[in-house]
Design a protein that fits this description.
The protein is of the alpha/beta class and 345 residues long. It is built from twelve helices and 18 strands. An eight-stranded mixed sheet has the order 4-3-2-7-14-17-1-18, sandwiched between helices. A two-stranded antiparallel ribbon has the order 5-6. Strands 8-9 form a two-stranded antiparallel ribbon. The radius of gyration is 20 Å and the shape is globular.
Length: 345
């Protein structure tokens, strides 16, 4: 098997961008989307965030689908934390406020869905995949490639692993990576306390206490512990994130046919934190371009390489977490390949 193909639109500042986007999508058989209902998976921005992908850019992808007579609709799921997108009604209002209702296609916000099981190290975990994703046979993912506090990088895999499942599954994925303390192994070195960004671990006398209401399951404390006193409650966050993405993308459509998928990572306004953050800055790399593929693993691997080249340093150095971990897990789960061939148009 050869390397996965990545189409790289490097020059995005001219009048030919629409044509380049169509050409890149058509490389992956866009014409097969003709006369089909197409789910466009994207993030429509937390209120206050200024780096999410804006409607004028998304409209180029909507228009490309309409050229082949497809019937697109914009889709995302509600989030688990309080904010402007934690209910369907609030998210629809946010999407409207950001201008996504003016692109000539419906905006649909999901949550409830079907439990899809994925084998993770011999244990079958069920992830509740949004009904709209389960029903869709044709998918176009337009993800913002940027940094992320927990995974180091957020792109196509995270767009589905966290953005394609219900609130309950989001909570489960985070909780799965929460630490469990073995007091007998703990030497009170406090490496875990220093590594925690949420102040969820504190020393109380001769022992540590974990405040799970503050814990996001980011695993920094587990990786920082030199004595192995902390273990995952279920499994690593990165692994569970990849497994949830697999649940979203491997499911067959209503006619029992494999889903047809095209993935886009937009490498512009590359912020340190994700589009869910109200304050997502600073920017960590200059604008790079747009990459397109039919392989979610390869496109994320290529995006990380391109960002690191443009930034002049590794994302692990910037974020203090391995950005490739969830990508490697996705490859092990059979979602794609990290080896790719970059074709510039």
């Amino acid at each position: 098997m050869g390397n996965s193909k990545i189409i790289f639109i490097e020059d995005i500042k001219n009048d030919g961008l629409a044509q380049k986007i169509f050409k890149a999508l058509d490389y992956f058989d866009l014409k097969s989307f003709s006369n089909k209902s197409v789910l466009i998976k994207l993030h429509m921005g937390e209120q206050g965030n200024k780096f999410y992908l804006k409607p004028p850019l998304i409209k180029l992808f909507v228009d490309a689908l309409k050229v082949v007579n497809a019937e697109p609709f914009l889709f995302d799921t509600v989030v688990k934390y309080p904010g402007s997108r934690d209910t369907k009604e609030k998210y629809l209002n946010t999407a409207k406020r950001h201008g996504f209702d003016k692109l000539g296609c419906p905006v649909v916000i999901g949550n409830e869905g079907n439990p899809i099981k994925v084998d993770v190290n011999g244990v079958k975990y069920a992830f509740e995949v949004a009904k709209e994703l389960c029903d869709a046979e044709y998918l176009l993912s337009v993800a913002h490639g940027k940094g992320h506090m927990m995974t180091g990088f957020g792109g196509s895999i995270k767009a589905f692993g966290m953005g394609g499942v219900s609130k309950e599954s989001k909570e489960f994925i985070h909780a799965a990576g929460a630490p469990i303390l073995n007091d007998e192994k703990c030497r009170l070195c406090l490496a875990c306390v220093e590594s925690c960004k949420n102040d969820a671990i504190k020393r109380l006398g001769n022992r540590l206490e974990i405040d799970y209401t503050k814990c996001e399951g980011c695993e920094r404390c587990i990786r920082a512990c030199p004595s192995g006193a902390l273990e995952w409650k279920e499994e690593e966050f990165d692994l569970m994130l990849a497994a949830a993405a697999k649940a979203c993308l491997d499911e067959f459509g209503p006619k029992n046919k494999p889903k047809k998928k095209i993935f886009v990572n937009v490498l512009l306004d590359i912020s340190k934190r994700c589009d869910c953050a109200v304050h997502a800055g600073p920017l960590i790399a200059p604008d790079i371009g747009i990459v397109v593929s039919d392989d979610p693993v390869a496109i994320d691997a290529a995006s990380i390489d391109l960002i690191e080249k443009a930034a002049g340093k590794s994302l692990e150095e910037i974020q203090q977490v391995d950005p490739r971990l969830h990508v490697k897990y996705a490859e092990k789960l059979g979602m794609g390949k990290t080896k790719y061939k970059l074709l510039i148009i």
